[in-house]
């Protein structure tokens, strides 16, 4: 339900999202990335080149404007509507939304994370790629200087992706490990700041399996 005032824990996101712009060279703005391209981008940590195509970006910005007007921020909308998670009273602009969780280790307890489709997937990916986002109540540890995830966080995420995505796909195809990739955007690249999440990309996965993971059908175009 829309709120009449912006919660303090989401105000930082409003301010930072208004000031952050990605510079995409004109020649790169409409490029469609293949699975091999995306794998290389993730392996070389060139996450800044991943983006929505110009036509989708215009629509996305208009949607963001409407959502911010109604809910105060994208974070507030995600908490209220998509995740249905209620931030604790001690949440603040400095901390972002803080939640009760069953286990402080990210992705250890199914009650502490939610797998959803990316409502605004990057149109720069080839059509065979499905873009999912895994939202987490516990924070994922990052290096305070670089902003990149720690080696321990990387280990935890790899293990989670393997048991939740790869193992499920291996029931259909023993070579499924090559059909799953993940990444976590640096803070400067995040459009929904304050809510912990990682991106998971899968290739050539049947819609029925995506529905198993997310509990929802694909939106009609």
What would your notes on this structure say?
The chain is α+β, with helices and mostly antiparallel strands and 221 residues long. It is 35% helix and 11% strand. The chain contains six helices and four strands; from the N terminus they run ααααββαββα. The chain has helices at residues 8-19, 35-43, 54-71, 74-83, 151-170, 207-214; strands at 113-117, 129-136, 180-183, 196-203. The protein has a four-stranded antiparallel β-sheet, with helices on both faces. The longest helix is centred in the last third of the chain and has 20 residues, at 151-170.
Strand order in the sheet with the most strands: 1-2-4-3
- Taking all Cα atoms into account, the compactness measure Rg is 17 Å
The helix content is 25-40%
How would you characterize the largest beta sheet?
4 strands, antiparallel
* Mean model confidence by pLDDT: 85
Order of helices and strands: HHHHEEHEEH
Structural class computed from helices and strand pairing:
alpha+beta
**Beta strand %:** 5-15%
Overall geometric form: globular
Tell how many strands the DSSP assignment holds. Answer: 4
Distance between the termini: 24 Å
Poorly predicted runs are: 14-22
Supply the number of helical segments: 6
State the oligomer: single chain
């Amino acid at each position: 339900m829309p709120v009449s005032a912006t919660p303090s824990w989401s105000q930082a996101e409003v301010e930072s999202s208004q000031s952050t712009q990605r510079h995409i060279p004109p020649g790169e703005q409409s490029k469609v990335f293949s699975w091999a391209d995306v794998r290389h981008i993730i392996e070389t940590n060139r996450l800044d080149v991943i983006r929505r195509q110009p036509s989708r970006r215009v629509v996305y910005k208009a949607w963001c404007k409407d959502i911010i007007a109604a809910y105060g921020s994208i974070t507030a909308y995600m908490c209220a509507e998509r995740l249905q998670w209620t931030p604790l009273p001690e949440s603040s602009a400095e901390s972002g939304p803080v939640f009760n969780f069953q286990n402080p280790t990210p992705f250890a307890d199914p009650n502490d994370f939610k797998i959803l489709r990316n409502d605004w997937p990057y149109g720069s990916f080839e059509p065979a790629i499905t873009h999912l986002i895994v939202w987490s109540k516990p924070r994922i540890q990052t290096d305070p200087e670089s902003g990149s995830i720690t080696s321990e966080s990387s280990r935890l995420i790899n293990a989670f992706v393997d048991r939740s995505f790869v193992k499920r796909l291996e029931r259909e195809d023993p070579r499924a490990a090559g059909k799953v990739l993940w990444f976590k955007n640096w803070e400067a690249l995040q459009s929904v700041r304050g809510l912990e999440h990682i991106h998971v990309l899968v290739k050539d996965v049947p819609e029925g399996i995506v529905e198993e993971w997310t509990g929802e059908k694909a939106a009609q175009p």
